[in-house]
Amino acid sequence: MLRRLYDRILTLAASERAEWWLAAIAFAESSFFPIPPDTLLIPMALARPQRAWRYAAICTAASVVGGMFGYLLGAMLYEQAARPLLDFYHYTAQFEVFRQRFAENGVAIILLKGLLPIPFKIITIAAGVAQMSFPAFVGACIATRGGRFFLEAGLLRHFGEPVRVFIEKRLMLVTSLAAMAIVAGFALLRYM
Fold first, then answer.
1. What does the domain layout of the chain look like in residue ranges?
2. What is the mean pLDDT of the chain?
């Protein structure tokens, strides 16, 4: 089953609509969706390493625009839209801690948390609720999301073929490590 899913993602990554899907997932993950764009960015960069920088740029731009939407949810529609979304994903308690921290260290939080494998939407909504300076918010999002996606793209462009071979030979190990990274990201989110 895991092999079929991996093959399906690679097929999607090589399709004509892959860039649109990448942009849609990056936008959604920054505002309301739990799936990170790396799940498509990585196979796309492995399938077409010569386009890795383009994919990173698409991912960054869509993630920042999605972050702006998440900020808007937090700033304008917290009670009507954001709070139910946070309740649905069981992030309400963590969110209240973030809200207090944003009042003190918003830019530093975005720069750090934007690099970690945690849902970016928590950060974007919190920034809106905390009424963080919008230009500072956008600048921090560009820096952290661009840093993350361009670093991934650069590594995949440079080490692409050995990485692809490693993933294909050790698919279960790679997915287990990815799952552990996500769990560790949530643990960091809870205790930082």
1. 2-191
2. 80
